[in-house]
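Issue: ligand-bound run for glutamine - logging full I/O for the record.

Environment: standard queue, default settings, no custom constraints.

Inputs:
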Amino acid sequence: MLRAGVIAVQGDVAEHAAAIRRAADRHGESVEVEEIRTAGSVPDCDLLLMPGGESTTISRLLRDEGIDEEIRAHVADGDPLLATCAGLIVASRDAKDDRVATLDVLDVSVDRNAFGRQKDSFEAHLDITGLDEPFPAVFIRAPVIDEVGGDVEVLASVDGRPVAVQQGNVLGTSFHPELTEDSRLHGLAFFE
Ligand code: GLN
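Outputs:
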């Protein structure tokens, strides 16, 4: 039995939990999902997921609760982390915003809300490295990744700008993979 933790200070916690369960099912794994709001649980988790929301709020709450150090240790131990939208912003090296205390577990810099007004929210069928068929990706005031470190692989881009990246055990997306029934992205992050 694998233990999956969903950081639950904000965001689509239930949707991510459901997506992890569906992905585990497809891969023949059994998983127990825990919602994490306080320090002490992350060290027991095999998989970790950081949802979207508001990156300023999430990073502040993680720091106040002392969960930030636990996430860093999880990644340093080689255990998988999926960070989506604001989660990606928090996981990054640099969000170019003093109000976001980034965890620096993914060697990318991001621009918050960079798709601008016209493209505030949109859906795209994305070709993602590692998935056979295009993925229905929902973007909501999404960040753009504007710099990637040497160890970071770009898995998908929109208009030439990276929106899904992987660095070893950390996978980050600008979009919300939990908002459709398609759990292949969760499978890619955790079970492949
Ligand atoms: N715009 C948000 C931020 O900058 C992210 C949006 C999201 O997670 N859907 O934190």
